[in-house]
Amino acid sequence: MLSKRIIPCLDIKDGRTVKGVNFVGLRDAGDPVDLAEIYSKEGADELVFLDITATHEKRKTLLDLVKRVAERINIPFTVGGGISEIKDAYALLKAGTDKISVNSAAVKNPQLINELHNNFGAQFVVVAIDAKYTDEGWKVHLRGGRDRTEIDLFDWAREVEQRGAGEILFTSMDHDGTKAGFANKELAHLSDSLSIPIIASGGAGNMEHFKDVFTDGKADAALAASIFHFKEIPIPELKAYLKGNNIPVRY
Fold first, then answer.
1. 5-244: which CATH topology?
2. Which of 42, 75, 116, 238 lies 20 to 30 Å from 105, alpha-carbon distance?
3. For every one of its 251 residues, what pLDDT tens digit does the chain have, with 9 covering 90 and above?
4. Residue 135, C-beta contacts closer than 8 angstroms, at least 6 positions apart
5. pTM above 0.90, yes or no
6. Domain residue spans in the chain?
7. Measured distance between the N- and C-terminal CA atoms of the chain, rounded to whole angstroms
């Protein structure tokens, strides 16, 4: 079995790391460059940097900040936010990213996924999907969760894979920031119906939640923010716990 990955996430607003609950009520969580360096040294498997207001504010990702983070870490680095065309991806690649994450722009222009795949390869393309449960099932949301679409989570995930994405980062808006556990039922369904890796996001609150997301949720990687930012769960302790529960992790 492939090793399961632990991925801290830096949600960036106005150049600072922030964290909220259910995508609202943001509070400051520290300097992203300093946090990135800490996570790299602590043994995080990858780092995700999401410029969460870039699309809403109709601007590009903060390239200078991306460069500063990339210079301080030695782990794979994924950046998302404000990427809407190939030249944006090239600029981020030049700035030091290993992968890019697209969300709203991919929904509005699905062909973008194909173009990114054709230019950079599947391993470079992560499609982030923010979804919320409604009376009509799980619906994809855009612009940092502000806009609901009528697109079904599972239909979109299958299309994303067919268009050439290398991974899916699924965030359950209902679980985000609640620390009540991941959306394991939905994650398992995604994993069973797709062949590309699934990164779970939204709901991490304790170490057992990580064990559950890798077993019950069948996720390939688990992403979390506040529990790492506010030092509630140190990454080395989390990996030791997972190893003790027969979950394969990298040391």
1. TIM Barrel (3.20.20)
2. 75
3. 789 999 999 988 887 877 655 545 456 667 899 999 999 999 999 999 988 665 555 556 688 899 999 999 999 999 998 899 999 999 999 999 999 999 999 999 999 999 999 999 999 999 999 999 999 999 999 877 788 999 999 999 999 999 999 999 999 999 988 899 999 999 999 999 999 999 999 999 999 999 999 999 999 999 998 899 889 999 999 999 999 999 999 97
4. none
5. yes
6. 5-244
7. 15
